[in-house]
Amino acid sequence: MSDSMSRPQRRIRSFVMRTGRMTPGQQRALSEQWPRLGLEADGQPLDLNAIFQRTAPVTLEIGFGMGDSLLTMAEQAPERDFIGIEVHLPGVGRLINRAHEAGVTNLRVMKDDAVEILQRQIGDGTLDRVQIFFPDPWHKKRHHKRRLIQPEFVALLARKLQPGGWLHLATDWENYAEHMLEVMAQSPDFRNTAPDGGYQPGRPAFRPLTKFEQRGERLGHGVWDLIFERVTTPQPD
């Protein structure tokens, strides 16, 4: 067998590790507040009830950016617990810093590849919601294979969600929105909650309006929200 055949295939990643300058506050938050607000991506299964010291519905956000909207959601829904995953350290540091300042207790942060965390550390049927807002659209056609929302990934998310749980997607790229809708419509594990079987009629009230989104609206950019419910039986064709 040749070397190329014997080596395991490298998984296509949906993100690029970009370096960014961290502020002193972000660096201090990472070093001082990580033991309280951070969760290690060490491959060990997470005991969510023990982490939050209670039993509550858990929302997982993948790719929270600078974390402003995730922090707002955690503040506005104290009855829920939130975990955010992000690979870029300035965003991780900013969210931890602001969460500490706000005294938020229902939020934890992880810094690693979300796919690996889901596969190794998140138990099946333990999540109430998964939200992915404005992921990298990889707008060039030759890069579409790098988009996060793909059938295999959606199937992985379905295993982690409880029956009745939500997968909430949002994008400001129409082509990616169409791709998301097509992938989700083909999944037997999800049901579209939109009345017309398409996109949500507007931004759900519980999803905060981000500065990024406000800027896009001023420029005339559209935003598409999709909310799909985890079902227990395959949907009819």
UniProtKB/TrEMBL annotation:
Pathway field of the UniProt record reads: tRNA modification; N(7)-methylguanine-tRNA biosynthesis
GO CC annotation? tRNA methyltransferase complex
Indicate the enzyme's highest-level EC class.
transferase
Pfam families noted in UniProt: Methyltransf_4
InterPro entries hit by this protein: SAM-dependent_MTases_sf (IPR029063), tRNA_(Gua-N-7)_MeTrfase_Trmb (IPR003358), tRNA_methyltr_TrmB_bact (IPR055361)
Q: Which UniProt keywords apply?
A: Methyltransferase, S-adenosyl-L-methionine, Transferase, tRNA processing
The positions annotated for binding substrate are K140, D172, T210, K211, F212, E213
* Protein name stated in the entry: tRNA (guanine-N(7)-)-methyltransferase
Which gene is transcribed and translated to give this protein?
A: trmB
